Amino acid sequence: MTLVQEEDNVTAGSMRAPWRIGTRGSLLALTQSGTIRDALVAAGHEAELVVVKTLGDLSAEPVQQIGVGVFTSALRDELAAGNIDIAVHSYKDLPTAQDPRFTIAAIPPRQDPRDALVARDGLVLGELPAGAKVGTSAPRRASQLRALGLGLDIVPLRGNLDTRLRKVSDGDLDAVVVARAGLARIDRLDAVTEALEPVQMLPAPGQGALAVECRSEDAELIEVLTAFDDAATRASIIAERALLAELEAGCTAPIGALAEVVESIDEDGRIFDELSLRGCAAAVDGSDVVRASIVGAPANADELGRALARELLDMGARELLSVAEPGPSGPEPDPGSNTQAVNAPATDFTQPSPMENNQ
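RE: above sequence
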C-alpha cells in the first residue's frame, strides 16, 4: 500500500501539522474528500488530501477476485495506523457493523439519493425498447429494473463513472444506471436522461451520503468535524442502515431504502418533524418485490429501520433475497463482494458493498 501526499496546506509559522484526509485517487473520491478539506480550511483549519493507493487500484485482476472490500478497508487501515487523520467514504460502502476504533464524526448534507439513467439519444426508461442493453452490476438495480417488466437486457458493468458513461456514448450499451449523486459531484449531471423516482427504484441505503470518519480517541478532531454534521441526514442514514442490519444484509443485496425528514402538522396546527422511511426487498430475477413504509420520530430512527425490516421479513423478504440471478450459469459474480464472500451462500449478505464501482 502506498501513500501519496496530494496537497500541502501548511503555512509558515503554523502551530500544528495539517489534518490528513485519506482518499482514493479517482476523480469522484478526490472530489468527495475535497469538499471536506475545503470545509475545514474555510473554518480556519489546515487540511490536506493524502491519496491511498490500494491493491484494488493497482491490480488488473477482476474485482470479484481481488475483492472490492480492499478499497474501504485500506483507508481504515491507514486511519488506524495513524498515517491519516480522516477518512471520507461513500456511506453506502461501509459495513453495517460498527468498528469501535472509529467514529463517524460527520455526515454532511446528503446529495440527491436517486438513481439516474444515462441512455442513448436522450431516452428515458419507458422509451427504451424491449431487449435494450442496460448496464449495472448492482443486484438492487437489476432486480428492480427486471420487476418493471420492460423486457430490458440487464448486463454486468464495472469501472469508474467515466468508464460507464463511455459504454453508452461508444454504443456498447443502450443505457446505464448509476447513482445521481456521483454524477453531481463530478459535474456530469448533463449526462442524465432521467432521474429515477423511488416508486420506480428505491436507492441503496445510504446512497448520496458521505461518512467522515476519524479515530474514536481523537476528541479534538471529532469536535471540529461535528460542525459539518447534518442532523436530518444522520437520522435518515441511521434508519436506512438499521433496516439493512436487521435484515442481516449488505448493500450488495437487492434491498432499497430511502428515509427523509419531513414536516408534518398535528391536529392543533403545530409543525413538527417526522421521519418517513420506505424499504423494499426483491428477488434478483425480478419475479417479486415486497415494499413497506413507516413514519415516526427522527429520534427513533434506529428503531424505525429495524421495525420496517421486520415487516419486510414477515412479507417474505428473506425468501426473495435467496433467489438466484437468471441465466444458465447461475448468479453473476457481484463486484461488491469482498474476497471472503466470493463463495458465500446466496443468503450471506453481511459483506460491505463496493466503493465507487457501484456508484
